[in-house]
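If you are new to this repository, start here. Below is one unmodified record pulled from the training split, so you can see the exact layout before writing a loader.
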Amino acid sequence: MDHPLHPVPRQAPSQRNGRTEIEAFLTHLAVEQHVAASTQNQAFSALLFLYRQVLHKDLDGPIDALRASKPKRLPTVLTREEARRVIECMSGVHRLMAKLLYGSGLRLMECVRLRVEACPECNEGTWTLAST
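And here is the target side for that same chain:
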């Protein structure tokens, strides 16, 4: 069995073009090592840098390696009813902050930095929110 860094039969240096070794190594990472797509992409970028910048060697044609699959992630979003039920379970400042975050689209730290100020030109009991 060949070493994992040499998944293809070794050839004389004069016969190597680099492309087949890179393809075999990247395929080995995806199929046998089960690495993440980002890890395989980083290895591919490092190898391209090695061949182009260090060895000053152009690769013959495109690299056609089996690519690692990227996981499909769906965003988790609450329905309006679920959000309402969560906010109803809160009280006090946390409930106010949750309502502001949900209703206005503020980011958490924007909401945390808000200050409540009385509005001198407004009727008694009217408040304005100001960011610091």
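Two things worth knowing about this chain: The two ends are 65 Å apart (CA to CA). The helical segments are 19-31, 37-54, 80-88, 92-104, 108-112.
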